[in-house]
Each structure stands twice: as structure tokens, then as C-alpha cells.
Amino acid sequence: MSELHTPHAGDDRSRDDDVVALLMRQHGDIRNLFDEVEATTGEERRDAFRRLVRLLAVHETAEEEVVHPFARKGFPGGEQVVKDRLAEEKAAKETLAALDELDTDDPKFMPRLLKLRRDVQEHARAEERYEFTHIRRSTDVTNLAAMAKAVKAAEAMAPTRPHPGVESGAKNMALGPVAALMDRTKDTVRKAMGK
Ligand SMILES: [Fe+2]
Ligand SMILES: [Fe+2]
């Protein structure tokens, strides 16, 4: 791994056996990737944006497959909390797909990215406040660890740092569109949960 990267929230992996800590760490990684996209231009921005798209797609899919189903039944009011979060995730995914069609140098790119950032940030805050806190209170370390394992399997599909030596976007592009990535993430998560 490169020595030259800026510190990421995920540098401390010690709490990754708790699904809530793990997802909150990913929220931090997502924030950092938005920063990176905003701070770069040209090929570097393209690369940072590909990593952001992948992490967002993988993160939201893992939440939908692992923590939302638990939250729905896990605590009083969970059903409504999950309904609200799913509506936010759907809106964010649509913005993401629209953004993904633009080149990162397109003049329309930055305003759309900033809108996505605001929506994603608000959504993450709502999850932490109305969902994650209750999940932690409603289950035990064994279940938190089991859910973390499935989320980690998904995370392996979205490296947050550039691949050393990959200067062109070609390798990233080969991963295909957002929807296909989400489908593959679903399969990976379900397999990790033994489904
Ligand atoms: Fe989410
Ligand atoms: Fe989230």
C-alpha cells in the first residue's frame, strides 16, 4: 500500500468486527473520497470518482442486504426507520447513476456531485442517529460480528485507494456500470451470510 495517501478513517481496522463501527467507518471513507474528487482534476479525479462510485454502491447494497432487514424487526419503529432510509438510498442511487454518465470534466459534474454529497451526508447522519444506535442496543456482539463479516465481504469489492501503477481509468471502467456492481455485491453478501 502506498505511503503517500492521506489518512483515511479506515486506517484503524481494529473495530471492524462490529457492523455499526464498520459502517460508520465507511461513512468516513465516503466523505474522504468526496474530498478527494473535489480536490483533484483530470485523470486523478476520474480515478477518485470511480472509487467513490464503487464504495457508495457497495456500501448501500450491503446496508440493504444486511442491516436494514435486521433493523426492520430488531427494534420498535424499525419498520418506518428503514422505509425512510430506503427512500433516501433510492434517490441517492438515481443521482449517482445520472452522475456516472457524465465525464468528470463536464461542467455539469461538480454541481451534481455536490448535491449528491449533501444527500449522502444527510442520509448517513439519519442512519447513524435513527438506525445504528438502535441496532447496537438491540443485539449482541456475536450478531454484530456476523453482520460485519458480510459487510466486509462486500467491501473487498471497493478499494478506497488507487491501485499502484494504474494511471489510466481503463481497469476501473472494466468493472462495468453501477447496477451490475450492485448485483454482484448482493451475490457476495448473500453468500457470506450463507444464503
Ligand atoms: Fe445507507
Ligand atoms: Fe450508510
Tell me what the structure shows.
By secondary structure, the protein is mainly α. It has one domain. Helices cover 72% and strands 0% of the residues. The chain is built from 7 helices and no strands. Helix 2 packs across helix 7 and helix 3 packs antiparallel against helix 4.
Number of domains: 1
What does the oligomeric state look like here? single chain
Summing up helix and strand content along with how strands pair, one would put the structural category as mainly alpha
Low-confidence stretches: 1-7, 166-174
Number of strands: 0
Please give the radius of gyration in angstroms: 16 Å
Globular, elongated, flat, extended or rod-shaped: what is the shape?
Answer: globular
Please summarize what this structure is:
This protein is mainly alpha-helical and 195 residues long.
Entry keywords:
single chain; 195 residues; mainly alpha; binds fe (ii) ion; Hemerythrin-like; Hemerythrin
Question: How are the elements arranged and paired?
Answer:
Elements: H1 19-39, H2 42-74, H3 78-100, H4 109-138, H5 141-155, H6 170-173, H7 178-192
The protein binds fe (ii) ion (2 copies).
InterPro entries: Hemerythrin-like
Pfam family, one: Hemerythrin
Domain Hemerythrin-like: 19-132
